[in-house]
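Example 341.
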Amino acid sequence: MSVIGVLTGGGDCPGLNAVIRAVVSRSVSTHDNDVVGILNGWEGLMRGQTKHLDRDDVRGIIAKGGTILGTSRLDPYVHGDGYASVAKTIQANDIDVVVVIGGDGTLRSALKLAEEGLPVVGVPKTIDNDIAATDVTFGFDTAVQIATEAIDRLTTTAEAHNRVMLVEVMGRTKGWIATYATIAAGGDALLIPEVPYDINEVAKIIKARHRRGHRYSIVVVSEGVEPPDDEAVAEQVDAFGFKRLGGVAYQIAPHLERITGFETRVTVLGHLQRGGTPTAYDRVLGTRFGVAAADIAARGETGVMVAARGMEMVPVPLADACAEIRGVDDALYNTATTFFG
Ligand code: F6P
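Predicted structure in complex with 6-O-phosphono-beta-D-fructofuranose:
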């Protein structure tokens, strides 16, 4: 019998509880392993905050947002001295493998710990969908669904008033949520970090639409785009060194209003995209990631991340997943822009 530790790190994400439920149930029922839940991400591993988890502890949680384990943005390489700062908790709980459910920051720390000797299995978590080496991350579908519904609603009120609406969505350095929501809701312009934008070109699209009698335009803005020339950006950073984003659309809106002459309003969706119940797709995807992680951990295969490849869940080297942040490809971006103008 092995002892499997499980933690959730970084920002929360719809579907985390589905993964935890699957890791625990599969480890206990199928592999006869024990599971120790590590509370509050890396903080729990550094400070010995743990909880034994059995099948009964994870019943009835699949539909819940958030994470029953809690999370934090503490990091063993920023707030501790790497492996040495987690070794005590690992030894005290006889943990053989840690399943680390996290985004790029958490997985990069997992990779460093793995290089220092900690046996880890990663699970890619983020609404941003930007982890390399996997086709998709859980939580993304829920965020896109929420953004799409918001745009649908903003469209009718925009049309009533002949307004331009800027809808700012999350995604940090990549525009996956923005691009999918634009395609799904029929947005009229799209600004993502991967593609530099020209505000005059955006204004041209909007003016042409309104000239043809359309009484609204929806511009989807990914939070990580650059603000218009010469304007300052907020520079608050978290433990992983990530900028705290949110509000760039407020900097862009007055420029668009000035050039187009149409009243331009802003909605920033923010954490609404991360909260609440996961979609059925994310519950299933999270479950598949969790089952695969438990199986891989039971085989003693470590230093890997579970990746979704087509219909399969496969282990890939953790280093591959951390090698880059995956952005929107040209083909997908062009699919969205096909409908502009
Ligand atoms: O990485 C997920 C994410 O939701 C990003 O889209 C966003 O920029 C960031 O986390 C916000 O993090 P926090 O909730 O810590 O401010």
